[in-house]
Design brief:
Elements (H helix, E strand, L loop, with lengths): L16 E6 L6 H11 L7 E6 L10 H15 L3 E5 L1 H11 L6 E6 L14 E5 L4 H8 L8 E7 L2 H11 L4 E4 L2 E8 L2 H10 L7 E4 L15 H11 L4 E3 L12 E4 L2 H16 L10 E2 L4 E5 H6 L6 H4 L2 E4 L1
Parallel strand pairs: 1-2, 1-3, 3-4, 4-5, 5-12, 6-8, 6-9, 9-10, 13-14
Antiparallel strand pairs: 7-8, 11-13
């Protein structure tokens, strides 16, 4: 039996041992980038331990079990600080960790942290992830002579649901600067393919991809993210853009104003540095990593015969 201490003590951490609990898996590009952002911007020397919950590939009924394994590892290694990467890690571990004296820093959180039973969690703070959905559409509009309709596609994962609800509230159709935006969350890969194939006939000017890592095939198995993005790029009759950096590149999306995992890690590292320096967690407010970056693929731009406006060229990071 594990005893949970409810009397909160001052949170002081030397930060020598840091335990990063990832919602996803170590080969997921987002995880690679945010961990790099942390390790490259953290002051001093530290020992890192990791646990991957693998919730983008495992069925939902396994997520709580993975959280239990992460909790057991936490109890075993007794880290000085815990980092929770993305919503599922915070959802399952936050309510337990708030009863400890361990400082906790989250990152990549699409939902409102209050939805994860974190009331009076004085040892938890972190970085929120807010996709630049509306800003992206406004900028991408400049690549075309005229835009009437945009289709935004997400999978049905908790992160996607949180991102969509934060940006578009309860409606899946909205108007932005005269542009009609349809937002669809899709579980089945076959329906995703149908949406992409019919986009041109439905007078869609371009598609923007959100998250797509939890799509299911007809047998209920998760379709690999690379298969989804590459198929979409190859078969769409309208240009395809993306909200996240990992979706941009040759045989992927053309480009976009994207969120980077590295920036989330960088922002988390700034909070970690404050905690290690002695600042109390309760005095560190959650923050939003607002900085987006333009990334475009030279190959995909050429394929679709699109030209970047001069006003954006100096701000773009190019990939193949």
């Amino acid at each position: 039996m594990h005893i949970l201490f409810t009397v909160m003590m001052p949170f002081v951490a030397n930060g020598e041992n840091i335990f990063i609990i990832e919602s996803y898996h170590e080969n997921f590009q987002w995880d690679i980038e945010y961990k790099k952002g942390i390790t490259e911007n953290l002051s001093g020397t530290h020992n890192f331990s990791y646990f991957q919950m693998d919730t983008k590939r495992l069925p939902k009924d396994k997520h709580a079990q993975m959280a239990d394994h992460a909790w057991q590892k936490y109890l075993s290694i007794k880290p000085d600080i815990v980092v929770l990467g993305d919503d599922n890690a915070l959802k399952y571990l936050g309510p337990r960790l708030k009863h400890t004296n361990t400082p906790v820093v989250y990152l990549g959180i699409n939902n409102n942290p209050r939805n994860y039973e974190l009331y009076q969690a004085n040892n938890i703070t972190g970085v929120l992830e807010r996709p630049l959905l509306k800003r992206s559409i406004i900028y991408l509009n400049k690549l075309f002579e005229h835009v009437d309709k945009v289709l935004v596609l997400f999978d049905a994962s908790p992160s996607s649901s949180a991102a969509v609800s934060m940006e578009f509230k309860t409606s899946n159709v909205m108007k932005l600067g005269g542009i009609s935006i349809e937002v669809d969350q899709i579980t089945q890969y076959s329906l995703w393919q149908q949406k992409v194939r019919k986009a041109k006939n439905n007078e869609i000017d371009f598609i923007i991809l959100g998250l797509y890592q939890t799509m299911l095939d007809e047998q209920g198995n998760i379709v690999s993210a690379s298969q989804v993005i590459e198929w979409t790029s190859a078969h769409s009759l309208v240009p395809v853009f993306g909200f996240w950096d990992f979706s941009i590149g040759e045989n992927k999306a053309i480009g976009g104003l994207v969120i980077e995992g590295y920036q989330q890690g960088y922002s988390a590292a700034q909070i970690l540095n404050q905690i290690i320096a002695g600042k109390k967690v309760i005095n560190i407010r959650p923050q939003v990593a607002k900085k987006g970056r333009f990334i475009f693929s030279k190959t995909e731009l050429a394929k679709h015969k699109l030209v970047i406006p001069n006003e954006l060229k100096k701000t773009i990071n190019w990939v193949k």
